[in-house]
Amino acid sequence: MDINLELYKVFYYVATTLSFSEASRQLFISQSAVSQSIKTLEKKLGHTLFIRSTKKVLLTPEGELLLEHVKPALLMLDEGEALLSGDNMLKGQLRIGASDTICRYFLIEYFRRFHQSYPDVRIKVTNSTSIGCVELLEKGQVNLIVCNSPNSRLGNHMKVKVLKDFHDVFVGDPDCFAFKHLPCSLKELLEYPILMLSSKSTTSEYLYHTFAAHDLKLLPEVELNSNDLLMDLARIGLGIACVPDYMLDPEDSLKPIPLTEQLPSRQLILVQHDNLPVSQAAERFLEMF
């Protein structure tokens, strides 16, 4: 079957972004050209690849099947072009998904070292929650993700490497909250306003599960999408924030609150998809850990 490779490329961008307009922006062609390319490809293949509506675009089962084969093929072509670029310098793009907290407090040093070693590789970081990062990896929009574990969205088709163990800690300003005695229990902690991440995060899932295991109902005062903002609110005395211990600065006015029940440890993990080829740039980044 004679099908232009460019049609598959357009299909890939629409399928991974689920947006004709975003695909046209990334491909630097008009939206009508994207639409016409998809219609041509569907006609040649004899299958409908997308379900279109005014609000969203979805892949049909046939479209999902095609994406599974087109995605690794295009990634391998990109890798080949990089290897034949005319010199021995590593080129290409490293696409990573991670939360802003993980980027700022853990990955930034690795990005600095990687960029110094491979200045011609473009580093594209997509910020999302640990749950959202798994979805990015499933769709092939990133090569690797660094996220929290446990993570309910991780599947058996993913390869996991543990990078770091950490504990979640409750922190507050001692001048704003005077505890009756320390260490305090989880039950006593609930007498104070709790500031934590939103319910769509692995941290929230973990905390609700931990408190439920002690027959306690966690009712946070504030739920946000930023650990840094949680700490800002805790510094002005709005409540007790729950954050990863690797964020803490000994010079900060916020101090950890000792607990009688030790919270289970969690991990930062690096995840790759078993069914997707790993680019040379991603392989070099993996070697840093």
UniProtKB/TrEMBL annotation:
PROSITE patterns: HTH_LYSR. Keywords: DNA-binding, Transcription, Transcription regulation. Gene3D superfamilies: 3.40.190.290, Winged helix-like DNA-binding domain superfamily/Winged helix DNA-binding domain. Residues 3-60 form the HTH lysR-type domain. Belongs to the LysR transcriptional regulatory family. It comes from the Bacteria. This is LysR family transcriptional regulator.
